[in-house]
Fold this sequence. Notes:
Largest sheet: none
Oligomer: single chain
Number of strands: 0
Amino acid sequence: MENLEKINEIIEIFGHFDVEFAKHMEEKIDTQYFVIENLKNSINHDEMFIKLVILNSIVSYQLCTTGELWWEEFSEYWSKNEVNNENLGEKYVNFLETSKGNRRLLNVKIKRIEKIIPFLENLNLLDFKNYYSNMEELLEKLSKNLNSKKNAKTIVFAIKMFGYASRIVFNEFIPYPMEIEIPKDSRIEKYTLKFTDENPIKFWNSISKTTKIPPLHIDSIIWPVLGRKFNFESCNGIIGEKSKYLFKLLEI
């Protein structure tokens, strides 16, 4: 079942947005961007910073808290604890085992870390710069090493967070590819039900094609707005008049 009236509304709302607006949302509104930016300023090792962000992304599911608070915990911990390429996997597992916000399915998550560590250990900063220019290739590698589908939530989410980290490290904005799909988490799934019963990934792919905004950037617009602590008043001061269209996203 589809609600065509609401679908037309969402297309109209996104007609007021573009990639630059999504970039502004990411850098000025998304808590996850703030906290990894703060972490980057605390770690004097860009390569290790990116590796930690990727590791944290692939286990960011079935949380005991909100995504925002989980990334705050991650950033705070690694701003105080050193790590190197030789002990990266071991140290990250230690963090995961003692974390407050990510205690479910620990054995499964630790196995994921163990699978991806050999791949990450062989990468240097130049490799990450090359992957930033070709995020689809990194998606392919993560998918293969973790034996997951390329549209699996944690795989595409890892690309999103890798994009954030690379933007901060290399001081360059490269938009996400149109081909990389939206992370299908609980917020997005519930919100999509307002419009259709079909697969959220398929639905937002169609919205992406219509609005010419890549799915990961669509996620950056929607995800913070659906958060418990999203404040429209403060957003208005940061985003300006377009914040009224963000409010309409919830009014639909």
